[in-house]
Amino acid sequence: MAWPCREELWLDRIDAARRAYAVLARSIAQYEPVTMIAREADVADASVLCGSGVDVLPLATDDSWIRDTGPTFLTDGAGGRMGVAWRFNGWGEKFTPYGDDAALAEALLDRLGIAVRRAPIVLEGGAFCSDGDGTLLITEQCALNPNRNPAITRAAMTEVLQDVLGIRKVIWLAGGFESDETEGHVDNVARFTGPGDVLAVTPGDAGDADFETLSENLARLSEATDAGGRPLNVWTLPRPAPRVVGGRVLPQSYANFYVANGAVIVPSFNDPADSPAAAILAKAFPKRRIESVPAQDIAYGGGAVHCATLEEPVSRPG
């Protein structure tokens, strides 16, 4: 994880965001080791709020969305690991400066002693989701946006993703939430729970700003097959009611969960849909405990649980 520090983003809610990140870190630490990256000036405060069960690592960052700025870890099935460092441009030059975040993936891999593979394109880790068996979900709205990679075609992007990540099949969805400043990160709208199984956020009524996009996503998933040629089993997730805080429409989504060792850490939004969504996730992950954490203060910054976390696979002898 990475400690919230961009005051222009969080404004007067930065302290609430930091408390929410600390709660999230402590929740995950019940199941696996957690390291919180923080600027040198924030190390002491992060250590106090997170507590002794969370390690704090001083590294330069521009903010707290480690899913997007950190490396994408790859494993070779024999205990070997590598990290992909994507080019990062502040979500299409929306947030500046972003130099520390752009350098974070390689800096972290260097500290961990893990080999780096430099990707030739701009992309964020929350923009795609893999089933771990050769299939990838991604949206056209984000990956083909000219503010990331001008003039890139879907075919060319597919080729890069297959080459860099070892993917055999890319399933292209239409897009994400209108309120999402990432312009269509898939981790808000669809997530694999395993090979052949995918969770997708359902559209509301026809007056919903995202109705057409989410309906198109569901239609594409219902017709898609994975890398093994299997049709997908599609679970559907409800959406919490729209919420505006400080003039911002929060991009709230139960699909923005984190899979930990033995548990699924699920965002909650003090909404009637919290319990039904957690029940669906419990069925989708029957061997894992469902751990709900408050995420409204995280959502104010534009993300949720998945955006704020990044798993590091353990290295096992081959």
What is the gist of this entry?
It is built from 11 helices and 16 strands. It has 318 residues and is of the alpha/beta class. Strands 3-4-5 form a 3-stranded mixed beta sheet, with helices on both faces.
In terms of topology, how is this protein built?
Blueprint: H1 7-10, H2 14-29, E1 35-38, H3 43-50, E2 55-58, H4 66-69, E3 72-75, E4 81-87, H5 90-93, H6 99-112, E5 115-122, E6 128-130, E7 135-139, H7 140-143, H8 154-165, E8 169-173, E9 190-194, E10 197-201, H9 211-223, E11 233-237, E12 244-245, E13 248-249, E14 258-260, E15 263-268, H10 274-284, E16 289-294, H11 296-299
Parallel strand pairs: 1-2, 4-5, 7-8, 10-11, 15-16
Antiparallel strand pairs: 3-4, 6-7, 9-10, 12-13, 14-15
Q: How would you explain this protein's 3D organization?
A:
The protein is built from eleven helices and 16 strands. By secondary structure, it is an alpha/beta fold. The strands form six sheets. Strands 3-4-5 form a three-stranded mixed beta sheet, with helices on both faces. A three-stranded mixed beta sheet has the order 6-7-8, sandwiched between helices. The chain has a three-stranded mixed beta sheet with strand order 9-10-11, with helices on both faces. The longest helix has 16 residues, at 14-29. It is globular, with a radius of gyration of 18 Å.
